[in-house]
Amino acid sequence: MRILVVEDQKDLNKIITKRLTAEGFSVDSCFDGEAVFDYIDTAVYDCIVMDIMMPKKDGLTTLKEMRAEGDMTPVLFLTAKDTVEDKVTGLDMGANDYLVKPFAFEELLARIRVITRKTSKQVSSLFSVGDLVMDLSSHRVHRAGKEISLSAKEFALLEYLMRNKGIVLSREKIENNLWNYDYAGGTNAVDVYIRYLRKKIDDDYDVKLIHTVRGTGYVLKED
């Protein structure tokens, strides 16, 4: 998933971005509400983690303008304010969740999983295609009962394919979902990671799940 972190405390912004990246997310970050629109105008995000008290434009105003423009990207507010009135205001503005500082990173991850699952209408943390099963809550993948060890980026790629099972995804879409603006890798990065993934989930099995659509991209499906 691709996430935008909006937090004016640069140290906290850096920590959140680093931890989310280590979990396999593609993460962009900025430091005020005005900059948000530069990012959402050029990329599609699965979730925005946003502080409320920020310079130039605060989180509430930013969210209000986003919703007025029809942008329904899930937003999780981070804030030091913990009164019921503050929470109600944020939720009434269209926020999907609200996390008070200081917070445990594990809770942030859990809340991101919940709000993205709700907006994608995925009622469970489990995804499956044939005998391939992914559990987002435990971060584990099994095929035919055998656990498969994946790197963070491999897991993120497989999650994106499984969320869109049966849908042909272009290399551009995959790249935009898995890497941020600062990515400076080669143009064949998607093909390289698809090859890594195939080796782990397809090579030892008769039924192949990852298919190449020539000239278009890739699709995860049963034959």
Summarize the structure.
The protein has 223 residues and is of the alpha/beta class. The chain has eight helices and twelve strands. The radius of gyration is 18 Å and the shape is elongated.
The radius of gyration computed from the alpha-carbon positions, rounded to a whole number of angstroms, is 18 Å
Which structural class do you get from the secondary structure elements?
alpha/beta
CATH topology of the largest domain: Rossmann fold
The overall average pLDDT, rounded, is: 87
Kindly report the name of the CATH homologous superfamily of the largest domain: Response regulator
Q: What can you tell me about this protein's structure?
A:
The protein is built from eight helices and twelve strands. The longest helix has 15 residues, at 105-119. Strands 2-1-3-4-5 form a five-stranded parallel β-sheet, with helices on both faces. The protein has a four-stranded antiparallel β-sheet with strand order 6-7-8-9, with helices on one face. The protein has two domains: 2-119, Response regulator (Rossmann fold, 3-Layer(aba) Sandwich), CATH 3.40.50; 126-220, Orthogonal Bundle (Arc Repressor Mutant, subunit A), CATH 1.10.10.10. By secondary structure, it is α/β, with parallel strands linked by helices. α2 packs parallel to α3 (59-68) and α6 packs across α8 (189-201).
